[in-house]
Specification:
The chain is an alpha+beta fold. It is built from 18 helices and ten strands. Helix 8 packs antiparallel against helix 9 and helix 8 runs antiparallel to helix 12. About 2% of the residues have low confidence.
């Protein structure tokens, strides 16, 4: 008697909870988040995926009707929130000319900030206490009101073929030994997951931003973050793509999303069928079912490892902003950073911007701020001599501090002028 025949005739069962415990719900849920970003994923879901219950309960929260509210009592949400492709809070923004201050920007600003943080910067000579990165982004392209995306991954069809082929193979093996319960459940899993991917992949992933008012001044401004300052230079329509832009996902069935709701019902029925019917099969069929789940789970784990935010960031920089000119510099102190930023953005609201960058308001700091702003407004250079910090009204310690601050400003000025000549 062959080994396969022995397994097929065995009455041993793995047990309902033994199978249910293999479900990789969180990985399956995370994997579905890539369907809207990679259009290929829509056609590559024909495998027996685990985690159908978790996915059903989460996506069922999109459908809006009394029926779906009863089946899926979770709080109603939107696709962008559920798939985590929008909703992050970005850094504070201060406009250089209009004086507008946004205490909190959005998802696109947060993504742009992460990209700047990952860049290597050019160090500026001078005193070093706490290094701060200053990125200058020249935004020459004004994006359209809405930009759609179709991202492809060269390896995706290759990796997707593995769980598809394994699911098909295990299904055929069950049919060969006439083990129809595992056969039907594996086949059902392939069909339900494939249909779900088709429906979830039908959404259009896009970027949008508001249209600026006519006659708006240049949108130049500064994004403030911990150890990272970003100077945005360009027209209002280009800058607000970062400060006020957002990502969206549009389905033909919105705002009720009934097609997604029915997919969630199918996933829920698949889960119930797995719990009830798999233990009715032979040990051989149950093992084949588990193998199909394990391979699919491994594939879902790989999909989960794909950085969705990097995909969005690349889309924002390369397609929406059309690869803006970005240069990053590393300043050694907050003082030199503030002067460098003022020089870079040419703000008409220097006092406000200076106070945002350096909130210190003691006598020495106020005198230094006033002196720097005065020179910049007059178009003078920031080269200082001992006579600039020798003030009889200051104590010895205050004069020493003022000297240090002026030298920081001069280092920033010299570094900025050098960067202009080299860029």
């Amino acid at each position: 008697m062959s080994l396969i025949t022995r397994f097929a005739g065995s009455t041993f069962s793995l047990g309902i909870w033994g199978v249910a415990g293999l479900f990789g719900g969180e990985h399956a849920l995370s994997a579905t988040g890539t369907i809207s970003l990679y259009k290929q994923r829509r056609w590559l879901g024909w495998y027996n995926s685990p985690g159908s219950y978790v996915v059903a309960m989460r996506y069922g929260g999109l459908a809006k009707s009394s029926l779906f509210n009863g089946i899926f009592p979770a709080r109603r949400t939107e696709p962008t929130t559920l798939l985590e492709i929008d909703g992050r809070k970005g850094p504070k923004f201060s406009a250089a000319h209009s004086g507008t201050v946004m205490e909190e920007t959005g998802h696109s600003a947060a993504l742009f900030l992460e990209g700047c943080r990952e860049m290597e910067g050019v160090p500026i000579n001078g005193r070093v206490t706490r290094r701060v990165g200053v990125t200058i982004a020249q935004l020459d392209h004004i994006p359209a009101l809405e930009v759609s995306s179709e991202v492809n991954h060269s390896c995706l069809p290759v990796f997707a073929s593995i769980p598809i082929l394994v699911s098909a193979f295990t299904c055929i093996m069950c049919a060969m030994v006439h083990d129809w319960y595992p056969f039907s459940i594996i086949l059902l899993g392939m069909l339900v997951n494939g249909i779900s991917c088709l429906v979830l992949g039908s959404g259009t992933f896009f970027f949008t931003h508001p249209v600026p008012a006519q006659g708006s001044p240049p949108g130049d401004g500064v994004l403030f973050a911990e150890k990272e300052i970003i100077v945005l230079k360009g027209e209002e329509g280009a800058v607000n793509a970062i400060t006020r832009g957002s990502f969206g996902l549009r389905f033909a069935s919105e705002p009720h999303y009934h097609d997604i709701g029915w997919c969630a019902v199918l996933l829920l029925l698949q889960f119930v069928a797995q719990l009830v019917l798999v233990p009715q099969g032979t040990l051989f069929g149950q093992l084949l079912f588990v193998v199909s789940l394990l391979v699919s789970w491994a594939y879902n784990m790989w999909l989960s490892s794909l950085d969705k935010e990097k995909i969005q960031r690349d889309f924002l920089i390369n397609k929406v902003l059309q690869q803006p000119k970005v240069h990053k510099y590393i300043l050694g102190t907050r003082t030199s950073m503030a002067v460098f930023v003022l020089l870079a953005c040419g703000s008409q609201k220097m006092e406000q911007l200076m106070d945002d960058l350096i909130p210190n308001n003691t006598k020495v700091w106020m005198q230094w701020k006033a002196s720097i702003i005065s020179r910049l407004r007059e178009g003078g250079n920031l080269v200082f001599r001992p006579s600039d910090w020798v003030d009889p009204s200051l104590s010895g310690e205050e004069r020493a501090l003022l000297e240090t601050l002026y030298k920081d400003a001069q280092s920033a000025y010299e570094g900025f002028m050098s960067s202009r000549h080299s860029s």
